[in-house]
Fold these 4 entries.
Entry 1:
Amino acid sequence: MSTGGSSRAGYLLSAAAGAAATVLVHQVVAIGGATAQPAPAATEQAIAPPSPKPPAERPPTSPSKESPPRRAIGQLVTEKEKEISRLQEELRGLRAEAGYTQERIEALEGTPQPWPADIPAGFREKPLEANFQAVLEKHKLGDLVDMECDEFPCIAVVKASEADPQWQQKFQAALKEMSASPEYGGKVGLSMWSNDVQQDDQKTRYTAVSMAPPGTADGEDARTRSGHRARGMLSDATTPQQQRGAP
């Protein structure tokens, strides 16, 4: 019993002491001017290490495509090689066909003939055209409707003044007279092609003629080429403009 009383008395004493301490604290605070507040109890705060800086942002990159497996690459290379081989074979065939076609064209049309370096002046375009005009007018043989000298020799197309069968002989005689001039060297090789056009009851003759020094345009290829050119010029001369597509 005595022990329990002592404990109770001690508890009461402690409580009383606590009340007194509380009053004392409040009094001390009031003496300071009633504006101060009791300092808050200190609390523990862990000091964390500084956080690392975030890494610099890199520009976005497009996702890389995965390379196909080696087997797929090998298959692709094989397919491309086959395609190249096929195209090369096709190209060889086209070249062979083009070569054959070119040979056929040359056989039918001949090859362009270059102008000889030492050709007499009378066979050149300007003097030849002037001499043609003069002889046609002198003998009343017709009109010079075309002359082409891009290749050797020059080729002229004459529209005959009449359809008389004797006209051709008269024309040849006039050309021989013209070729006697020194500017032709005294000798001239002549070639002629004619085309008669019938319109209603009227027939008109067109004659193409080439003049060259003997031996300069006598080869087979040169004759083939001159004939091809002459036929083309006669066709142009005898085809109406509306059929040629001229405005």
Note: The chain has five helices and four strands.
Entry 2:
Amino acid sequence: MHMRKLTSLVLLFLMTVSTPARPASPMPRKSPELTISEPSGKTTLLSSFKGKVVVLEFLFVKSTHCARVAQTLNKLNGELGPRGLQAVGIVFDAPDPSKTGGQLLPAMVENLKLTYPVGYANSRDVDSYLGRTGKEILAIPQVVVIDRAGFIRAATGPRTDPGLEDENSLRTLLDGLLKESPPAQGPAKTGGSKR
């Protein structure tokens, strides 16, 4: 009996420890602001894409899995861009993307023949944007889909979401969002500061 009680307590402890500390964020929710830097020094605010359906891929430059998703987004951006889709790649290789992944961006973009904006952000800003806390481990790449009004409608989260990486599933989601009416347009915000 004592052993059974001990086993039950150990199992309960393990389930508690392995459960994510925070519940999944509700959808839809307002997309926070994020500054995207380019190797040239130009910066772009994520909010400057308001009015478009945006697919963000937070990626590592040397990941073949991230490269495959980037190619999928490139294809979808080519097909659905005229209807209002905007794919955006954001490299956040540790420890400092401006000195690691950021330097490799031009070669990656050229090698994969990407036709959409790809920049970088530091890990702290990416963690803040994604709501990552402490030692929480995220699947890479992280894919976030934002509607025309600036609300996050889908996000990878702590575990991989095959539907956000599969071309057909993603196309279906994006097609539905592209059919929604765009919000009233205000002035676009842009970065533009040089570092």
Note: Strands lie at 29-30, 35-37, 43-45, 53-59, 85-91, 118-120, 142-146, 151-155.
Entry 3:
Amino acid sequence: MSTQITITLPDDVYLQAERFAQLANRDLASVLADTITSLIPPVRSNGLDLQPISSLSDREILDLSALQMEADQDARLSQLLDRQQAGLLNTDEVSELQALMQIYQEELLRKATALNEAVKRGLIEPLK
């Protein structure tokens, strides 16, 4: 399934994409779609509240600003990263590490966005 959209690109980006499409003998739309697909990381579809940060209450913003990974997940992530650095990960652990890194990255992005909103609202002081 596909959804057709219209986007406005800066001229230099359009020309760069058009040149690449010609070089690769591909149509521009498929080059842009593949580029977007490869650059946007996957996002878990379950267990993640994707309500816009700007629509949250001050209390919810502050709670998100203090968001931390669950202690057991954090400990396991550290163990797996240590094992990875030592070159000792098995196949199951690689998958587990990828899943935990996904959770970590999503929560970090959500926390950073909440911190930005908290500063905008004057709830906390900007970092110096």
Note: The CA atoms of residues 57 and 63 lie 10 Å apart.
Entry 4:
Amino acid sequence: MTPIRPLLLLAAASVLLAQGCATSKHDVAKAEAGQVSVCTKCYDQIRKARSTGGPRGGLATNRTITTHMCEDCKDEMTIYEKDGVLKVRCATCAPEGVDCDRCVPKTAAK
């Protein structure tokens, strides 16, 4: 192998890698500071829970409000109340559990 051949191979690999990284087909919305992007199916479930069975008045409790098997995430999403705050946990969208107020839907690809 001549000394120039490894250099050419490295240059070609760099170009291919840069091209692959530049073409992103991810369906991700830009979340503002403090907001979390969740898939549209999870967001619909959050909206439904907030409109019908949101946090109760009175004593702050910890309870599960609903669980949902998301078709987009292929995982279970749980909406729950913790210390009087409505929260959501989804292994894909919000693995650490976040306040439902902070969730925004991902936009559809155009």
Note: The chain has one domain: 26-105.
